[in-house]
């Protein structure tokens, strides 16, 4: 479903080749300064243009259509719309018969039938994450002093990013990567177990982002190899600071005041410039497929700001929920 | 919060040392055969008693108090209660001053104050997962022919489980592990992007289970090292079966008819028989702490059935949601 | 569905002739004194025994099974269970063929099939409102100084209640009534338009109570006959107090600090001691039906405390939501 | 909060004097024909222009920005935007000190502070119901053969509408009215007790509509005066048709296949052309207030189509929920 959250609530909409994409943000406290200008920095970080991303530059201009008055939030829903430009382009109808490997073409047609908007990925397009980034900016404002910082730490299994990208470009291929996200200055007490643990809320949002394949908090998959005596984080001061941070800043689903840390695995972009095999379901036989156009060789380059936004959104909602019962 | 789901909805309650734990399951279709007897097999798999689990045997007898009539579900809410036995035991009040490393003692007290039930972990106890296992049985019935199977594939980083367990027991320590879960015979089309992708729903539930540190679907963290040409799964027949299954049975957040696969990292049990350091917050200094009693050296041994249940619950809800719009 | 609320959330369950009925209350702040004893006064007001109610006395003993510790709420879900007694009694299976006029027998069988628990109304029984009354007590505690008071103002169209009841008893018939509910000392600002206006939240709960047929706030249906110049409530002091109170304490879906007033129409009990006509659906013809047993001649006598509870529940949730965004 | 529904879900936004108002509709099945043209008939019924409504004509042109493809719904969220025109007009800032009687000015300022958009009612404006009407059109399509028909049955307590309107216009005053809504051809079985009875869902939406003061189903407030033997509706044929319809087509919160009937009380428009008294909160004294501009003498004239929409929305969601569990 296309909504998320209990107090700070999102409702997302749009298609890559339709009139636009956007998001409605409800439950935002009144009085927070918010203009389109505030959104530009994070939106800029999501933009293409850098080496390894698609040279197709999209102008992602947000328009805040409601929920602010004289530059501040009013407490009413905030809708942010990104109108699409120049989308009438090419014919995608061949995707109906020959779905692209790694994409949602095949399942979308099964689930929604012939009415699925298959052009440019439709509602499944990564373009829809523009709204997430915008909502993330609002969420960060709600969180106040909390700082959230995500960055790419590994690309194609390597840490020398440039070489990895050049290799992929040369081969008309794509590569995956790992994004690490850290949040500091979080108060103790955000998180609503049993079901709405911090990890549950963040992972729910992270796996809504196309191309994510895994998430781990703190020690993550390494924890499976450790002993309890190594893994337990000993308290070292009266604020609850711990010697190690295998917990990744969370105990029992609740922030413990230490740094929140998680890592996300991003798969290589499904659209590649190499010829692939796919089933032509109309003809009932496997055919070669060459996806034309310009793609992101490494979509992971554009994802850190989206992951920051997801973390901020989850934490902002948990902050407001926590506040409700104080 | 303690509820989850849109149509197939859970409401969980209880404490380890209170009167009992349990779950209310709402939104279940009418006419499904269901008795306490049906729950025993999965509950048995969660039980302690095996080498490496606590020798403290709990009798986990479920009582279905509502929602069935003449052995079948009625469509009304099903409440399943597990009464606790012999819980008056020892004094836990020292945890207020000296929270156990790795546990929720510290954060719970910050969030809920002196009123937090600290005895035996209270509402944070792993005992609360009994309800999840029971709900999992109902969910599996809703899913019909779908088979879900989770098992421990790695323990303390090794695959020779017995040796790993004996070593931990000898050292009065604990170890983590990895659980892999597979679901077969799933129809194409379950999953409700943007926010309620299959991965989002499953991971939300998985991270509600105490001790989980990471989750990955299909290729998971390996995907970050791969190229698109390797990662993309080529269709090989007219049912949508693919040559490889890096997608783990999901594209665009929707089941694609191939095997659903995910893996979960479980941390070593926080309660260990070794002396640890912890802050005595009343005295303001670090002290040694020895947690008495009998613990699970490897809680991961008892978790596979809980993970199966989580997967079944997420998929059952997605099945009913999908059905709503057909 | 059997859950309600955003922060202060209820999950209701049970059947009149099953093992019991009850409610789970989630989202309650920690630290509120709560014992079974606290529930007895309001439960007593719902009890039968008075002239005009069924002489069948039910012992409605609540058991709080979770969510409190040393007599105070912990912030974890509170489950309150009322076990049923002496319910094996009579055979209700004739209701499958011959549904009782005014009851849910007919629709329940259509919706849930043969699996519907038809004994004593099953999940449709008025007995399920015990949980609402219990949750109402908790809600009133959350509301602090707010006082809520509902009473029967009219019975069978009359204000001399005794005569109306005696007449109904003499005729083996039943009668309806009107309950008026007032809440005082409410702060300005509860209510979350657009959808969760105070009236929306209260009426949602009121129409869940069996036998309710109408609700009006402030001037209510009279407003339809009035002119704006008569209806508008003029402010008379700096606290926002108004000269008249046609608004019933609510403007734009939000409490305005004046007395909250609403009235609820209760239909006459459907079970009467007179012979009625009903369709025997098995035989395909109309037959006479005489419902045996002892019934409430005027169920409206027992409903005021349930209506108070509904108002308190809606307002408590709105209070916590409002607090989340302050 | 500004969202509603479980499967068929609405998210509403906008302000009367901002950039626009609108609605996002999620959970709509794929394949339903839908264009802007389809919305025009119902939007036309909400329009002003008739005698007794404001002579200020608004062009309410909807733009469907997402969720349709080649004229049919895709299963993705549908957003419908109504851009505002010519709204820069006058200065409303006096409302901050001198709130209008009967309006939300006073409570909005208390709840949201100085950041509330007070221009033209802001998010509290009746203009926001445009989205409800649009969503109602979609809901009616989901309901298929069901016909829903609302009309004004009483105005200012009279049935000779023209005279009532002329009198109000002459006096520069406003008048209320009663709208009756009937739905036919509903299947048996829609409605989800305990909490989501048909009446609960409809009344929740009805009381979100500005100016509604009461609602009654079937016999409604008359039921309070009746005896059970009069009120019970006897079944007369094998489809469940009843002799009378005091139930208003609903038993136990579930549609029973008979005509659904409810009535809604509408208060007189709060904005009138007569001088009123109001508190100037800045000066701390009562002053005379004359609201300039052109108003609806009888807003009830424009409300029937909004009430139809509310009924359709509630029923469409209940239909989809019912379908989920079949």
UniProtKB/TrEMBL annotation, chains A, B, C, D:
<dbReference type="Pfam" id="PF01264">
    <property type="entry name" value="Chorismate_synt"/>
</dbReference>
<keyword id="KW-0274">FAD</keyword>
<feature type="binding site">
    <location>
        <position position="46"/>
    </location>
    <ligand>
        <name>NADP(+)</name>
    </ligand>
</feature>
<dbReference type="GO" id="GO:0005829">
    <property type="term" value="C:cytosol"/>
</dbReference>
<dbReference type="InterPro" id="IPR000453">
    <property type="entry name" value="Chorismate_synth"/>
</dbReference>
<keyword id="KW-0285">Flavoprotein</keyword>
<dbReference type="InterPro" id="IPR035904">
    <property type="entry name" value="Chorismate_synth_AroC_sf"/>
</dbReference>
<comment type="similarity">
    <text>Belongs to the chorismate synthase family.</text>
</comment>
<dbReference type="GO" id="GO:0004107">
    <property type="term" value="F:chorismate synthase activity"/>
</dbReference>
<dbReference type="GO" id="GO:0010181">
    <property type="term" value="F:FMN binding"/>
</dbReference>
<keyword id="KW-0288">FMN</keyword>
<keyword id="KW-0028">Amino-acid biosynthesis</keyword>
<comment type="subunit">
    <text>Homotetramer.</text>
</comment>
<feature type="binding site">
    <location>
        <position position="252"/>
    </location>
    <ligand>
        <name>FMN</name>
    </ligand>
</feature>
<dbReference type="InterPro" id="IPR020541">
    <property type="entry name" value="Chorismate_synthase_CS"/>
</dbReference>
<dbReference type="GO" id="GO:0009423">
    <property type="term" value="P:chorismate biosynthetic process"/>
</dbReference>
<keyword id="KW-0057">Aromatic amino acid biosynthesis</keyword>
<keyword id="KW-0456">Lyase</keyword>
<feature type="binding site">
    <location>
        <begin position="267"/>
        <end position="271"/>
    </location>
    <ligand>
        <name>FMN</name>
    </ligand>
</feature>
<feature type="binding site">
    <location>
        <position position="294"/>
    </location>
    <ligand>
        <name>FMN</name>
    </ligand>
</feature>
<feature type="binding site">
    <location>
        <position position="51"/>
    </location>
    <ligand>
        <name>NADP(+)</name>
    </ligand>
</feature>
<keyword id="KW-0521">NADP</keyword>
<comment type="pathway">
    <text>Metabolic intermediate biosynthesis; chorismate biosynthesis; chorismate from D-erythrose 4-phosphate and phosphoenolpyruvate: step 7/7.</text>
</comment>
<dbReference type="GO" id="GO:0008652">
    <property type="term" value="P:amino acid biosynthetic process"/>
</dbReference>
<protein>
    <recommendedName>
        <fullName>Chorismate synthase</fullName>
        <ecNumber>4.2.3.5</ecNumber>
    </recommendedName>
</protein>
<dbReference type="GO" id="GO:0009073">
    <property type="term" value="P:aromatic amino acid family biosynthetic process"/>
</dbReference>
<comment type="function">
    <text>This reaction introduces a second double bond into the aromatic ring system.</text>
</comment>
<feature type="binding site">
    <location>
        <begin position="123"/>
        <end position="125"/>
    </location>
    <ligand>
        <name>FMN</name>
    </ligand>
</feature>
